[in-house]
Design brief:
There is one protein chain. The protein is an alpha+beta fold. It has 4 domains: 276 residues, no CATH class; 148 residues, Immunoglobulins (Immunoglobulin-like, Sandwich), CATH 2.60.40.10; 222 residues, Jelly Rolls; 81 residues, Immunoglobulin-like (Sandwich). The chain has 11 helices and 37 strands. Strands 18, 20, 21, 24, 27, 28 and 30 form a 7-stranded antiparallel beta sheet that branches. The chain has a 6-stranded mixed beta sheet with strand order 1-3-2-4-6-5, with helices on both faces. The longest helix has 22 residues. The radius of gyration is 31 Å and the shape is globular. The N terminus is likely disordered.
Length: 753
């Protein structure tokens, strides 16, 4: 009797964890042989594919969402016998693809997609036989029939709960009957994907190109993964040709792409695709965070320009929100694009100070139907902008449930910034951009600006010191000034003022100073300081300082953090005092320095713009004056192994130190932003204001410079001659007859025009 009870308990325990084997649903439990998990780096024709896979990583469950793979066939069709090996190969390939490219673009993940495995390493999936014969699963609603039947069987067998979030991936095989459709859809809450199952004889290896001849092409591997990614919430997104990695996962059908690009069989995940997926619950997101509502974000200091040198759009701005977004994504929708499969989507990380810069590289210029008879061909497009929030939502419109940039949901979740392209008779290109709807325009009140022309006078705005001078070479040897090679205004992101502001109020004569840490044969040991004269902060509630830095001939990999240059501040400094005076309190703020959106990496001899927000320090200063210092600690401890290429201190260049406070002018009526076009912008001669309907009748216009001074006022004017204005940034303030005010930032005589 006890023996019977024991076997009964074993049976109950087993069946509690594994469903019954039936004719309609089968748990895969068979041990299969998997392919190797080592990725071989393959040298490609254009760029090298990153070598990265994480198939050996441990499972970390932070979400209730499930990815569920189902192999479906009608009641009268047996699923092909090769499916066990094929499932292992395709899932290995899919996971490796996402892992490789998301890490490559700086969006690291652990256990991407979260497919569950048995202890022996086999993936858990389900083979389902339909209730009907193959002919039933045909016609326009065949996908709906299969999905409904699959979902019902999963629920009946206890695999899927009634409220279970899932991404359902269905591979469908109908024998000689075509029952499959390649289709999918979803968002961060879950989704579905249908794909046909094709029998192939060869293996699909991790280093295979996604559309190469043989098993990948015959199995339609790219299409199978493409539809699954639809289920994750991505719409069609074309390849960025300048990336040089082939077709995008969400791009056109492989055959179409290969016809256009000489049989290129490669495939990859674009940076935008990686950014949009990063906080999805099946990647690094937490499903519980989806309950957090996103307030409607605001953008300040928004700017879109055409860089004629690089032939790119440059979109910059600052996100104003209490909540955190990790990236901004922009979809360039141009009506001349071949189809939405080719529509380009771009992304960029948002900096710690919430600024961003996105470069739109692959511009579409196919004259549209609205080409002028004069020969100036015109075409238009729209930049659709959305933010990728840390809770997994993708929206620029607050609590919208839209997926931001995904197909039909793009209009509900993204913000539109229209633009117009004009091909001029001389063959040059011209672009006019609308402003970001509801954008805040940030003006800058410069408190102090120094050109570094003089470094010995007390009135120069700064003073240099050589302390702990073990090498005894003298100040003039350690510190040099140069008028050539100063950073460009395009890098700085602003136009330099005509005169210095603050201590040295003379006419600006731009210069950069350099700290030298070595001669041609040895490193020097000395502490070099450049101390800015104290700035009066008695009337400031917020302040930012930015400056340009450049390093040369120095070994190291990390900007500021591992280099001997430090940024310090003090609130008790007096002009001319040696910075090592024991009465001074210096605060090291090096780690708080943020590389701005115009920075270009840590390469040798490249200027970088750095920014430091001083607002939090001002609020606790207890003083009305503030001083900034740069300190270069040059060390000669390794003189005995000095080498000009591997062990040298090098030099640091410093330029354009600017202190400024900011204020924001709001768009009072954001609807009017859609009713009025201001063009061209940037502008060099005549600025035009065009009303698109009766709501945009202009009452008064004003131009305001960065110091807040009104430099131009006219009533009921549609054209403004600005040729006599100094170049720079202005705020165009438009008052309307129907009420409301619209502020737009205008660039006068900029670099790119």
């Amino acid at each position: 009797m006890m023996k019977k009870i024991f076997y009964l308990l074993v049976f109950i325990t087993f069946t509690a964890f594994y469903p019954y084997y039936t004719d309609s649903i089968i748990y895969n439990k068979t041990t299969t042989t998997t392919t190797t998990t080592t990725t071989t780096t393959t040298v490609l024709a254009i760029k090298e594919k990153p070598s990265k896979n994480s198939l050996a990583k441990s499972v970390v469950d932070v979400t209730n969402m499930k990815p569920i793979l189902v192999l479906f066939s009608p009641s009268d069709v047996e699923f092909p016998s090769d499916y066990k090996v094929r499932v292992q190969q395709v899932l290995d390939y899919t996971i490796n693809t996402f892992d490789t490219w998301m890490n490559y673009w700086g969006y690291p993940v652990t256990n991407p997609l979260k497919f569950k495995k048995y202890p022996n390493g086999d993936y858990i999936y389900y083979v389902i036989r339909g209730d009907k014969v193959a002919t039933y699963y045909t016609g326009s609603d065949k996908s709906r029939k299969i999905k409904n039947e699959v979902t019902a069987k999963l629920k009946v067998n206890g695999i899927l709960g009634n409220t279970q979030r899932k991404v359902l991936w269905m591979w469908e095989y109908g024998g000689g009957q075509k029952i499959s459709s390649f289709v999918g859809g979803g968002n961060y809450k879950g989704g579905y994907a249908h794909a046909g199952y094709n029998v192939v004889s060869d293996d699909i290896n991790l280093d295979s190109n996604i559309a190469e001849a043989g098993a990948p092409q015959k199995f339609k591997l790219k299409g199978v993964i493409h539809e699954f990614t639809h289920g994750l919430g991505l719409g069609h997104m074309g390849p960025i040709i300048s990336d040089g990695f082939g077709n995008s996962i969400m791009g056109p059908v492989s055959k179409t792409f290969m016809n256009a690009f000489k049989e290129d069989t490669r495939g990859y995940l674009t940076k935008a695709e990686a950014a949009l997926l990063w906080k999805h619950p099946l990647f690094s997101g937490n499903e519980a965070d989806l309950k957090i509502a996103i307030e409607k974000p605001i953008v300040s200091n928004f700017r879109t320009i055409y860089d004629s040198v690089k032939d790119e759009f440059v979109v910059t701005g600052k996100l104003v929100s209490k909540q955190s977004a990790h990236s901004i994504a922009i979809r360039d929708q141009n009506k001349s694009e071949r189809s939405d499969y080719w529509t380009k989507c771009y992304a960029s990380r948002i900096a710690d100070n919430k600024t961003f810069e996105v470069r739109i590289t692959d511009l579409i210029r196919i004259p549209g139907k609205d080409a002028k008879s004069s020969g100036s061909a015109r075409d238009s497009g729209t930049l659709r902008i959305a933010f990728c929030w840390n809770n997994g939502k993708i929206t620029a419109k607050g609590p919208s449930s839209g997926q931001g940039l995904n197909g039909s949901q793009a209009s509900t979740g993204s913000v539109s910034v229209p633009y117009t392209y004009m091909l001029l008779p001389d063959g040059s290109h011209s672009y006019t951009f609308n402003d970001y709807p509801g954008a805040l325009t940030q003006t800058e009140n410069i408190i102090e600006y120094n050109d570094f022309d003089v470094n010995t006078s007390e009135e120069s705005g700064f003073k240099v010191f050589a302390l702990n001078d073990v090498s005894k070479k003298g100040l003039s040897t350690y510190v040099k000034g140069y008028y050539s090679g100063v950073p460009t205004e395009a890098l700085l992101g602003y136009n330099r003022p005509t005169n210095n502001i603050g201590s040295d109020v003379g006419a600006k004569k731009q210069k950069t100073i350099q700290f030298l840490g070595n001669s041609r044969k040895m490193n020097w040991e000395v502490d070099l300081w450049a101390v800015m004269h104290p700035v009066n902060i008695s009337t400031s509630t917020n302040m930012t300082v930015d400056f340009a830095l450049r390093r040369r001939y120095h070994e190291g990999t990390n900007f500021l953090s591992e280099d001997p240059l430090k940024v310090l501040i003090a609130f008790n400094y007096t002009n001319g005092t040696s910075p090592d005076n024991s009465s001074l309190t210096w605060i090291d703020v090096t780690e708080s320095v943020v590389k701005g959106p115009n920075s270009v990496g840590t390469s040798e001899n490249i200027w970088q713009l750095a920014t430091l927000d001083l607002s939090s320090h001002i609020s606790t200063a207890g003083s009305n004056k503030f001083a900034l210092a740069f300190k270069y600690e040059s060390d000669a401890a390794s003189n005995d192994v000095f080498n000009s290429k591997t062990n040298r201190n090098g030099r640091w260049g410093i330029s354009d130190v600017r202190f400024y406070s900011t204020s924001i002018l709001p768009v009072v009526n954001e609807i009017l932003n859609e009713d009025v076009i201001v063009y061209p912008n940037p502008v060099s001669n005549t600025l035009r204001i065009k009303s698109l309907n009766n709501r945009g009748q202009v009452k008064k216009v004003q131009l305001i410079n960065v110091l807040g001074k009104v430099v131009y006022t006219k009533n009921r004017l549609k054209n403004i001659n600005i040729s006599s204005l100094p170049k720079g940034v202005y705020i165009l303030k438009i008052e309307f007859e129907e009420g409301g005010i619209l502020n737009k930032k205008i660039m006068v005589n900029p670099l790119f025009i």
